[in-house]
Write a structure and sequence with these properties.
Elements lengths: L1 E7 L6 E2 L2 E4 L4 E6 L2 E2 L4 E8 L9 E10 L8 E9 L12
Antiparallel strand pairs: 1-6, 2-5, 3-7, 4-6, 7-8
Amino acid sequence: MIRRVECRNDGIAAVRLARFVTSCDCIRVHAEPEMIPPKASFSLVTEIDLTGEPRFAGDLAVKIDGFSDGTSEPGYHATLHLSVKPIASDSPDEGR
């Protein structure tokens, strides 16, 4: 599942978000555009892949840190809150 989260660079300088680290391997993130002018809006594009945990249902709070080229400290922080609902199944064997 792919979702866009609208964000804003409230700083006075342009920022290039080149790399992201998340607290869950189930989430991949990139910024569109990658180079964000000051006071400009941008999208964080999040791709959620729960195939590694197909029976997971519940709430997640995934921390996201964005890094500019060559930096070791994140210049962007966010927390993505998700609520994963179980999919109803017609199979009588489901859950066994």
